[in-house]
Design a protein that fits this description.
Six copies of one chain form a homohexamer. Chain A is globular and about 70 Å long. Chain A is of the alpha+beta class and 331 residues long. In chain A, 42% of the residues lie in helices and 17% in strands. The first copy, chain A, starts with 5 loop residues before the first helix and ends with a helix. Chains in contact: A-B, A-C, A-D, A-F, B-C, B-D, B-E, C-E, C-F, D-E, D-F, E-F. The interface between A and C is medium-sized, with 27 and 27 residues.
Chain lengths: 331, 331, 331, 331, 331, 331
C-alpha cells in the first residue's frame, strides 16, 4: 500500500530516508563531468511528479530491468535546490504484482466510476430506437472496450485529463443532451444520445494512460475521430440488417463533432443532432475548464474575487468566479 | 380589411383589376425614354413584396403625398415579363386610420404574442435575487419599451426575422437556459435568466420595423450591444443602492454575448453565465435557422430526403432533415 | 446514335424541327399565369446543357414517367430570347435500352481509358512490397469498384471534371510520383505509389455521374476521405496477417492527403510519403487547372498572349501561357 | 525622501545594509522545507522592481499590516544568486503620510504635467461648437476625473506605459489632429478634437496605477471603450438639450476608435472624423513605440546603426533608426 | 469637337440619329442564330460607357481596321431594352488626328494638372538633402516619365481612378506629409517627402490608360512596387556617388508602403519614415474613397442624412456624412 | 589546425587546461557585484557554441582588440554549473592569418562543394535557349558572386542552414525540376531551370555568414527577393538585345517563388514555370526539414520508431520515419 505521495515529499527534511511506490514516467542515462554514468528519472503518482537521480546505477540495490511505465519501489531521500526538490534514489526495484495500484499513480476522477457506468448503462436502456440500442449494446458488451471506456482520460492536458475523465464527460453530456432534446422537437433524442456516447470512443485507442497520459503513435497518425468511426463501422458490419441511412448519420455525428474543419472535423455538422452534439460537447468542455481554473486559482492562493490568470485553453481570457465575487460585494 | 396578398397576385390573370392595401417599402422617380417621369414602387405585405409602376404619376387618382413606410390602398392589375410579375398601378391613396393593419403588412411570428409575453413575465417572477428582479421589472414596466419588445424582429434577415421574433427567440432561450442552469451547479440561474432577457434589448432601438425591417442610423453607428448597455445602465442608475458588482456582471453579459471580438462583442465571456448565454443564444439561432431552411426547402418542392442548398448563414453548409430522411429509408 | 449535340443547336434556325437524345439533368413543374402547368427541363449532353420547355405536358406524345437522370429522345425546335436559346419540346420519350450511350451525354476524358487502366495495372505490378501489392490487387479485382474507378470524374467542377477524370489524374500522378521517389532516397516508392492509387478512391462513392456530376447524400455527409478509408479498411480486414503498422500508414496517407485541416484532412502529413503525396496531388491538380484555363481562354477567342480572366480555383489570380506569349515577342 | 533606487541596488556589495522606501507590488507567504513560513515580496519604484525575502516574518521589526500597494520603509541588504539580485529584508514598516511620494515609485512622463494640462485646456477653449465645448468642460471640471486624467498611464505595458502617459498621448494627438483637420475640408475639426480628448477617457477606470500598473476587475470585464462611453453618456444626460445626433456621433467615435472589430471596437469608423481618429491614434501609438524601442536599444548598448530586436508590439518586426544609421554612412 | 456624351444618350428618343466620337473599350465578333456575324462594342467617354451593336459589319460605311483603344466617329441611334440602352451603329470610322481629344474620353481630375505639377515641383525644390534632391530631379526631368506621371490614374477602380489621379493623390500626400513631419521630430522630412513622390511611381508602367484603365501584362506579372523600385534603382545607378545607405532606405520605403505582406508589400515598414508613408498613403486613399462615396450617394439621390450603401473598398461598411447629418438635426 | 571542438569540451574534466581556436559570436561587458568588469563571450565552431567568461579582462594575456566575428585562440578550462558548461578563459588573442579556417567554425554541407558546382555548371550548359544561357553565364562568371553562391547557407535557421546550403538546395532542385519538366509538356524546361538557379540568388547579399549566420541590415530592409531581382536586372541590362518578355518572366519567377503574398512574395505564380518553381522549392525544403528532424531525433537518442517532437518549421506537427518504423513491426 502506498502511503507517501509526491506532495508529501516537499515537506520532508533533507537526508530523511523514506520508502514508497511510484510510476516511472521517464528514464534517461547521462554522464557526469568525470565521465561516470548516472540516471535521471521522472517519478510520478496521482498527486504530481518529481525528478529523481540515481548516482550509482551499478549498485546491486538498483534494478537494471526497469523502464518507462513500470511501477517501482524506491528508497531514498529528498534534496533541495533553490525551491525545487529532487529524490536521491538509494534503492530501487520493480513492484511485485499486487504491491502497488495504478489508480494511485495517475490523477483520477473524484466521481464513483461504477455509478457513472450505471448512468451510461441507463442511458443506453432508455433508447427506444432498436437499431441504435443494439449498436450501443454490441459495442459496450465488449469487455476490453468497456474496461478502457471506464479508465480513459478525455484528454492529455486540457479538460477532464484524469482517469475516468472520458466517462465523466460523457455522463455529464448525457444529462445535458436530454435537457436539450426535450427543448427542441426537431431533435431525435435517441440519435443525439447515441452520438454523445460514441463521439469520443476513439480516444480509448488514441490515448495511452498506463504510463502517464500520452498519445499512441497510431493515435497521432489517425486521430480519435477516425479511430472511433472505424470501431463503430466494424461493429455495425457485424449487425445484420443495420439500416444504411442510420449508419451514415451515426458516422456523420462522430466525424463532425468538432464543429469546424480547422478543429480536425473533416465535415461540418449538417443534421440537427450533429449540431446539437457539437454545441453540448464544446460547452461542457468549456464549463469544466472554467471549474478547473477556479479550483486551480484557489489552490494557488488567489482570493475568491480575483480574476484568474490568462487561460490558454480559453483563448487567453481571464475568468471570474461569479458567486465568489458577488458574495464579497462591499467587503 | 386586407384579403388580397402579394402571394395571391402571382396567380391573377393579366389585366384583371384588383384592390388591396400594401406597405410602401421604396419609392423612386425615374424618366422614360421620351422624358416622361414615372414611379417605381416596392409594395409589400406579410407574404412578400412585388415591384409596382405608376406610369401616370400626374393622374389625379394617384396621391402625391405618400412615401416609404406609408400604408396605401392600390387599384391596379398584374403584368408579367418572363417569369416576374409587376403591379401596374392605376389608383393609389394613403390608407385611412384603421383601414389597414401593420400586422398584415410584415411577416409575423406564428406564436401568440400575449402568451409569449406571459412566459417572459413568469420568468421575471421566478427570479429570486431581489436586485435582478427589480431591474427587470423596472425595465419591462416602461410601456413603450414593452410594446417595442413585443413587436421587434430579432434580425433584419437572418434568424427570427419577423414581428415578435425577438420575443419568440428570448422565450425559447428562457426554456433552454433553465435546463442548462439546472445541469451546472456553477451557474447562477437568476443571473443567466437576466442575461437572456436583456442581451438583445438594444434591438428595440437598433432595428426599425414600421416600414419594412431595417436598421436605424443610430443603430448602425452604435449597435444593439451598446444601445442595450445604455438602456440597462440608465435603468440601474434610477434604482437606489443597486450593487455595483452586480451591475458590472449584467453589463458584461450583454457586452460579451456574441462570444468573439470579430462578431462585434468587445469582450469575451469571462464568467460562467456569460459563457452559457453565448452558447444558448448561438445554438438557438442556429436551430431556428435549420428549421427555417427545412421549411423553405419544403416550400420549394424539394423531397424530404434531399439536402438543402448551401446555407449562407451556416457557413455555406448543406443541411439534411434527419427525421424525414430516415423515414424514407429503403424507399 | 446521337448526331445532334447541344452545341449544334445554337446554330439552328428557329422553328426548324430536330430529333436527338439527351440526358435529363433537372425537371420541374411550374404554372403559367393562366394556371396551366408546364415543365421546365434541363437537357444535357457531353457538349453542354440547355433549358427546355414542355408547354403541353398532357399531350400523349410527352412521356409521363421520365425524370432526372433519364436518357430521353426529344423532338422539338429552338427558340431564342435575347442571346439565350431554349428547346421547345413537342415529343419526348425515354430512350430504349441501347438507343443512346451515356458516354455521349457527359464530358469525358480525351484519353483512352483502356490504356490508362493498363498503366494503372502496370504500376500495381511494379510494386515490390508483397502486402501493398496484395492490398491493391484485392481492391482493383472487385469488378464493380474497378468499373467505377474507370468512369468516375475527379470532381464535380474543379480539376478533371469529366468521365475518366479520376483515372486520368491518378495515372498522371503515378508518373510524377515515380520521378519524385527516384529523387529522394528518403521516400519508400511502393508506399507512395499505393497512396497515389488509393488517395481519392472514396470518390467512387462520394460522386455520382450517371445523371450529371453530383455528390451523393452519403458523400456530402461523410466525404471521400472517410469513404476511401472505409473501403481500404474493409479490404485489409479481409487480408490475413496484413501488418498493423503498414495499415496505419496507408490510412494516414489517405486521411492527410489534402495537406491542411481547413482543406478537410483531419491530419497533417507526418511521414515523408504523405508529404510527397500531398505535394504531387496538389501540383498536378493545379497544372491541370492551368491547362484547362488556357484551353478555355483560347475557346473564348482571347489572343495567345493575353492574360486569362481571374481563375476562381487558383485564388483569383490571372494566368499567362508562357510559350504562347514568348512566341509573340516583338509582334 | 527617497535617495536609493532599485537600479542602484544592483551595484551594492552583499551584506551592506541600506534603508529606502518602496512600493509593495506583490506579497506572498511560503513555507521553507523545515515548515517555517517566510515572505516573498516584489518591491518596486520608478526605476524597476526586485524580489525581496523576509525570512523572519514573526520578528517584531517586521510590520504585520502591510500588503500590495503599500508604500513601505525597508532596511535590508542585497544578496546575489548567479546574476540575479534579491533584497534580504530585516526591518519593514509602512511609510508614514508624507514620508514617501508615489511619483517616485512608478515610471512617470518626462513632460511637465501642468504644461500638458494647459495644452489640453487650450484645445477645449479652441472649440467653436458650443455643445461640444460644454460637454468637455462639464467632464473635465469634475475634480476627481481631472486628477485621474492627469495621472493615468495609457497602457499597462505597450505605448505610454507611465504616469501621465494618457495625457501625454492625448496632447500629442491634439497637435496631430489639428494638422490633419487643416488638410481635409471634409473633417469637422471640433468633432475630431472632441474625439481625441474623449477616446481613451475610460482608461481612468479601466487601469489602476496606485499599486503598479494593472487592470481593475471592472476594467477587464467591461473595457475602457464601454467605460468611456458610459462616462460620456452620463455627462450628456446632465446637459440640457444636448443634440441627439451629436451625442450619437461622439459615442460612435469612442466605440470605433480601435478601427477593427478584432481589436475590440464593436463598430468600424463610419464618419470621416472617426476614421481620422483611428488613424492618428494608431499612428501616434506606433511612433511612440518606435521611439521607445530606439531608447531601449541604446540603453542596452546597441550601436546606433544596428537593427533593434523583434518588436512584439509591432508584429515582430525589427526597426532601424534612420538618422543614426545615415549619420554613420561609410564609417 | 465632342458635344454628345454617353450620359446624354440615355435621354434620346429611339430611332433619332446622332453623331459623336467615342473610345472603343472592347470589340468582339459574334454570330446571330442565322449564322450572320455582327459586332459587339463597348463605347466610352469620360462620362461612362454603353454597349453598341454593328449588325452589318460588312457595310462599306463601317471601318474594318479599328479596334480596342481607337477613337472612332460613330453615327447611330439609341435602342432600349427594359431599362438598358444600346447604340445601334450605322456608320463608324476611325477619328482623324486632332478630331477628338483623349481627355474627353476618360474620366479626368477636376484639378488643374499644371498647378498640381507646380506643387510637386515646389516640393522637390524644398528638399534640403542634396542626394535626395538630385535623385528626384533626375527622375522627373525624364520627359516621357513626367508626361506619364501627369496623366496616370492612381488605380483602375478604387481611389483616384481618373486621369491625373496619381498626381492628385501625391500632391495631397505632400501636404499631409509636411504636417506630419512637422509634428514628429523623429521623422526626416526630406526622406518622407521623397517616399511620397516615389512610392507609386511604378504605376506609370503598371497601368495603361490610353484605352480605358487597365493593367499591362508586365504590370500584372511584376506589380507597381517592383516596377517603381526598378525605375528608382536604374536612376540611382546613373548618379555618381549616391550613398549606399540612402539608396537602401528609399527602396525600403517603396517596398513597404502597403504596410502588410498580405497587401503585397514584401517588407513591413521598419523605419519611421516608412511607417509614416504607409499611414498617410492609406489614410488619404480612404478619405478620398469616403469623399467619392458621398458624391456618388448624392448623385444617386439619397438624402444628405442617409447612410451610404455598403462600401466594398472600406470593408463593406456604410458611411455617414457628418456635416450633412448634423445640419439636419431636428428636421 | 583545430583539433578540439565545442562538442569535445563537454567531456573534459574541470580545471584541465586546453588550447583551441574559436569564432567569437558575441561579446558583452558586464560588472560583478563588487563592481569589477568582466566579459561574457559566445564562442563557436562548426559543432556548436558555448558561453565563455573572461574574469580578468585587464590581464595582458587577454587581447583588447577582438570582437564579434573574429577568429581567436583561447587558453582556458571548462567549468560546470548544474548541467551547463562554461569556458573560463585565461588567455585570448586573435588568430593569425592562416592559423585557423573559417570552414571549421561554421556548420558546413557534407557534400563536396566542387562537385555540386560542377552539377550547377552542367545544368547551365544544358540550357538550349540562348538568352537564358547567356544570362546565367554572365551572372555566374562574376567571381565574387560565384564565391558567395558556393558558400552561402540557404537560411539562418530553417532548412539547409549551413555553409554551402544554398548550392546544395539548388542542385537538389535542379534534379527535381528536370524530372517535373519531363512530366509536363506545358512546362518550358529551360525557363524552369533558370528559375531554380536564380530564385534565391539574393541570399548571397541578404545573409552574412562570416561571423555566424545572420541577416545584413540591407537584407532585413529589402529582402532576398528584391536583392535577387536587382542582381538579375542589372545583369540583363548589360546584355545587348535581351528580349523584354523573357526578362519579365524571369523576374516574375523570382518575385513569386514564395507562392503567397503572406509569405513575402508580392505576386502569385501566374505562369506554369513559376507555379512549378514554387512547388519544387517548397517541397524540397520540407523534405530536407524532415530529414534533419529524423537526424536530430536519432542524435537525441530517440528510438527509430518514436515520433519526433513537434516541429516548429512544419506547423508544429510531429513526424515519423516510415522505414525505421516499419522495420520494427512486431518488435
Amino acid at each position: 500500500m502506498k502511503d507517501i505521495y509526491i506532495t508529501d515529499l516537499a515537506g520532508f527534511d533533507e537526508e530523511r530516508p523514506f520508502n514508497s511506490f511510484f510510476l516511472v514516467l521517464a528514464k534517461q542515462q547521462r554522464t557526469t563531468k568525470q565521465g561516470k554514468p548516472y540516471l535521471v528519472l521522472s517519478l510520478g503518482d496521482k498527486t504530481g511528479q518529481m525528478e529523481g537521480r540515481v548516482w550509482e546505477p551499478g549498485d546491486p540495490r538498483i534494478a537494471k530491468d526497469f523502464g518507462r511505465g513500470d511501477l517501482v519501489k524506491v528508497r531514498g531521500s529528498v534534496s533541495r535546490f533553490d525551491d525545487r526538490c529532487q529524490v536521491k534514489v538509494e534503492q530501487l526495484r520493480k513492484a511485485l504484482e499486487g504491491e502497488a495500484d495504478l489508480k494511485d499513480m495517475l490523477p483520477c476522477t473524484t466521481r464513483d466510476i461504477d455509478e457513472l457506468w450505471r448512468q451510461l448503462d441507463a442511458a443506453v436502456e432508455s433508447i427506444v430506437h432498436p437499431d441504435l440500442k443494439r449498436l450501443l449494446k454490441a459495442l459496450l458488451s465488449d469487455a476490453s472496450l468497456a474496461k478502457a471506456y471506464r479508465e480513459a482520460p478525455a484528454a492529455r492536458q486540457l479538460h477532464h485529463a484524469w482517469l475516468g475523465g472520458l466517462l465523466e464527460h460523457v455522463v455529464s453530456l448525457l444529462g445535458l443532451a436530454d435537457r436539450v432534446a426535450a427543448h427542441y422537437p426537431l431533435l431525435d433524442r435517441d440519435l443525439l444520445v447515441t452520438g454523445v456516447i460514441l463521439h469520443d470512443i476513439g480516444k480509448v485507442h488514441e490515448l495511452t494512460w498506463e504510463t502517464g497520459f500520452d498519445y499512441s503513435v497510431e493515435g497521432v497518425l489517425l486521430g480519435h475521430i477516425q479511430m472511433g468511426v472505424d470501431l463503430v463501422e466494424k461493429t455495425i458490419a457485424g449487425l445484420p440488417d443495420f439500416p444504411e441511412r442510420l449508419r451514415t448519420l451515426v458516422l456523420h455525428m462522430i466525424l463532425s463533432h468538432h464543429g469546424k474543419l480547422e478543429f480536425g472535423s473533416p465535415k461540418l455538422p449538417m443534421i440537427p443532432e450533429a449540431l446539437a452534439l457539437n454545441f453540448v460537447d464544446d460547452f461542457d468542455a468549456k464549463m469544466q475548464a472554467m471549474t478547473s481554473e477556479f479550483e486551480r486559482s484557489a489552490r494557488e492562493g488567489k482570493a475568491a474575487d480575483e480574476l484568474t490568470g490568462k487561460v490558454w485553453a480559453l483563448d487567453q481570457r481571464q475568468l471570474l468566479n461569479t458567486k465568489a465575487w458577488l458574495s464579497r460585494e462591499g467587503k
